## 1
Amino acid sequence: MDDLRREVASRLRNSLHGREIDMMENRIELPHMLGITPIGKIHDPHNEEMTILDTKHPFWQEYHETVNTKSAVTEKVETAIRSLKKDDIFRMTYPFGEEAEVVYVEVDKMGIEQENTTTCMECDAEIVYNLDLVNNGSSYFFEVELDCTECDFTGKFERGMTRA
Ligand SMILES: [Zn+2]
């Protein structure tokens, strides 16, 4: 779920990082946190179309799991936020004490994935490839996608690992 965490972290960072938010005056819901609705404005669910809260958004269309209901999307995003909080990437502090109900929000930039490279088996050019660890419920597998920009070579490789 690291791709989801990165996606969510960058949205949280854009809308919340470095801000002091008065929780008495503003009702902060998920769409505010994700920058779909500005803080201080009342959220209208009609504005969610084609945002990250919509199953039709390209992110979910390309996601490795099927996420096809509104509640599943919300749950995924909320889980990602909880995980970012747990890892201290997303932090909320109370600069004036908790009773003041003003929170100061910080969201770290999540590191860019390290680039993996290999040599094309057709033309010896350098290829940057993506390595994904996929969990399909009962087992894990690595998936490598190669696409050479110098020649027409493309390839997809998988290596599975099942629980012993
Ligand atoms: Zn090649």
## 2
Amino acid sequence: MTPFHFIGCQAIWIVCESQHQVYAGCERKGEVTLATQKILRLILGDQLNYRHSWFTKKNDNIAYVLMEIRQETDYVKHHIQKVAGFFAAMRQFADALKRKGHVVIYYRLDDPRNQQSLQRNIRTLIDKQQFTRFEYLMPDEYRLDSQLEKMSDQIPIPVGVADTEHFLTARSDVEDLFSGKKRYLMESFYRHMRKKHNLLMRDGKPEGGKWNFDQSNRQRYDGAVPIPQKKSFRNDVTQIVNMIHDCGVTTFGSIEPTRFQWPVSRRQALNMLREFTTKRLPYFGTYQDAMTTESEALFHSRLSFALNTKMLHPMEVIKAAIEHAGSASGPGVSIAQLEGFVRQILGWREYMRGIYWAHMPAYAQLNYFDHQNKLPEYYWTVETRMNCVAAAVRQSLEQAYAHHIQRLMVTGNFALLAGVHPDEVDAWYLGIYIDAIQWVEIVNTRGMSQYADGGIVATKPYISSAKYIHKMSNYCDGCFYSWKVGTGSNACPFNSLYWDFLARHRSKLKDNFRVAMMYRTLDRMKNEKREGLLQQAKQYRSEIALL
Ligand SMILES: Cc1cc2nc3c(=O)[nH]c(=O)nc-3n(C[C@H](O)[C@H](O)[C@H](O)COP(=O)(O)OP(=O)(O)OC[C@H]3O[C@@H](n4cnc5c(N)ncnc54)[C@H](O)[C@@H]3O)c2cc1C
Ligand code: SF4
């Protein structure tokens, strides 16, 4: 790739060999010779790509800057593990660059030189250290992308932008693939990616004869297979946590500072990947939708933080899984397990990013059902009698992690049934999870979970009554509410709220064939039963904070 190219006085877009658009800033006179420049390169907290081409050669004329700044700690209220995790990983990354001989400028949050914003720190560095050129990596968040673009117009030296060399698609690939189509079907995108990258393909056909093994997956956890012990690191982040508190950053959730569990270096990230492929992958698909109080992650990988900070590359994760499945020690990994996992990364992750760039910034305002309620306080305090919500929230506060079905079918499902404003739901998800970065969080939350985009991501709202939660978890055992009951003092709130949701939003959903069966069931109900459920829901909605 030739990342930078300047002509005349015009800011231009060029396309690099990997088909990513790269913005090249304004150069006032003639060609740029990098060797004669004194260059400042910015690395954001989620751009910790150890294998980026920027770092292949060391050059004393290039300084890399990383900053812990209030701008990033304060744009939403974050879980303490999230802030500490990002800072710890950034520090490890900076140290690794220094060890390789690169020039690194690192601003700690409490550094007196730190002016707590990207603009101010960069402007000061340029002025004081006479940099002749500024470069940054394409941000993944719209917020930072706009900020840096605007800033580039204001700084007095040429600016260049390079690709992060992380994703398997360009920002616009999903939009281009579905150009002119109303729906962006993930399944079509995923098949396109399988073919394009020749992954799990045999003679042009999908390995195992099917593209999708969801039918054989999705079992309840029955205890037949022991769940491996959680992979946890013992990073000491005490100094970071004290600094965060001393600086007055408001966070929530709990942390064990001397045994910080998440991977914060490339070595640890690889370690976690190895643990996943050898111990969890063999049952990943089977139990991917199961929930149990016995384990927070079951057979899930917990690799999202390492992936989203870019310590791991998505293709190396996919290849590691495929290689392990085909190795002498991995014959227990069936195609159903492997395909289930590959789909998450090759399909869902890239697809969500494509939707984000196709629809931002308007996406962040969408509220299809015009929901206006507040998020109940128990999303922060756990003080609810609903066992499933309490379990998912408690775990999220303690671990900064919940797996996909907990996020989608428990906390997300309930927020949707309760008519919570998507802004409130987004802020909670964006703050609480270790892996939450807007490009992936908002499309999952506002789109997939809250259907606030009116069906861009999901073909129907992900709602369920207690039946699904009971089927897929042990949460209903010992719950104050009864999963079998729709009305009465111990009726599970999910039951009446489910039918009430359908009744309230009939005009918006009636033409959706995927919901048609639910409406038929609602319409076939005896009047007395339907009215009872709707009355019960009305009562529950009026006292949602007390459930
Ligand atoms: C309401 C809601 C909010 C979410 N917010 C986030 C978020 O902020 N950040 C985030 O990374 N994921 C988010 N997800 C997607 C998914 O829940 C997490 O990626 C996953 O739970 C992370 O755990 P894991 O690494 O154990 O995943 P695994 O189940 O082991 O999956 C492997 C990897 O696949 C990718 N993946 C799986 N599902 C998705 C998906 N739907 N979208 C994108 N990537 C996916 C992740 O990188 C994940 O690490 C959200 C889902 C929902 C329903
Ligand atoms: S009974 Fe209802 S509230 Fe209780 S755990 Fe089951 S689904 Fe959740």
